[in-house]
Amino acid sequence: MLSIKASVFLLAGLACSSASPFPTLPTTRTVAHFSNATWVENIAVRSNGQLLVTTFLPDAAGAGGIAELSPDQFFVAGTGLSLSPNTPPSPNAVFKIDMAAFDAGREHVTKVVELTDAIGLNGMTALDKHAGTLLVADSTRGYVYRVDTLTGSYTKVQDDDSMKATIATALQLGINGMHVLDGMLYFTNSNHGTFYKVAITEDGTAAGPYEVVADLRTILDDFTLIKNGDSYITTDPGNTVEFVKADGTASLVAGSADSILFGGTTAAQFGRTRADNRVLYVTTNGGLASGKNIAGGRVLAVDVSPSKWAAYLTPSGLRSRPLE
Length: 324
Prior knowledge:
Layout: E1 8-11, E2 14-16, E3 28-33, E4 39-45, E5 51-56, E6 62-70, E7 73-79, E8 93-98, H1 99-103, E9 109-114, E10 121-128, E11 133-138, E12 143-148, E13 153-159, E14 175-181, E15 184-189, E16 194-199, E17 211-215, E18 223-225, E19 231-234, E20 240-244, E21 250-255, E22 265-270, E23 279-284, E24 298-303, E25 313-315, E26 321-322
Antiparallel strand pairs: 1-5, 1-26, 2-25, 3-24, 4-5, 6-7, 7-8, 8-9, 10-11, 11-12, 12-13, 14-15, 15-16, 16-17, 18-19, 19-20, 20-21, 22-23, 23-24
């Protein structure tokens, strides 16, 4: 079996290097730039400011969504999706990454459960942190599973047309990114180019109709939500990050159709320290999805509110290596 460790990387975020205002604060900064064969798929942010990113590599197990259930206890979706048909098959499984153990130099990766009927696990979000439950999306089948990380069991809890690839296009991936906010499950459908939401119960099943938040008519990947229901959504081969208000109004944040820097945006998360809580960290696949301007996956730091910043941000202590 290919190791999941080689598909998760630890990076440093941004640190404040000056406490005085800087008049020409850069909008975007590259935190890490990987080799041309590396697809950076998803991102999580530790409370200490470090970044965890998942990747697809030619000779490693694919890793998709990542979520934190308790401090420094992260869970990753190992997926059967891969960059090449020649890559040996990997299990669709959920793995636990204990970053406290990693910091102490101890064994830190354990398999929680293999989802034997899943085909292409992708997005992941915490459902109930106290109960230790996650929701995990199968982009190929258009399902959502609830995973109990304490018992190592799983159950299919959602199966709806809004989650499936129902349009005859080259991309046959349905539900992709998903996150829970205030009793609502928000999710993107890559095939539809649509951002949806649905009320859910405590066990992750639907408690109401599936609603369209925004129809962006472009391939959508993962996203991050803020407390008022607004979101920042990545568009993968669209090479952009879009800001979508809770009412569905959309506007461009960063990137462009021909951007190399933002080539293949895949996920986004905000920093968690005082120095970077208005910095949006964006991962990219470096153009591997579109096959255009392939430049290697990146982690970018995008300042989304320059007028509120009183410090010049620079990379600090960058580490880019597999968690092994």
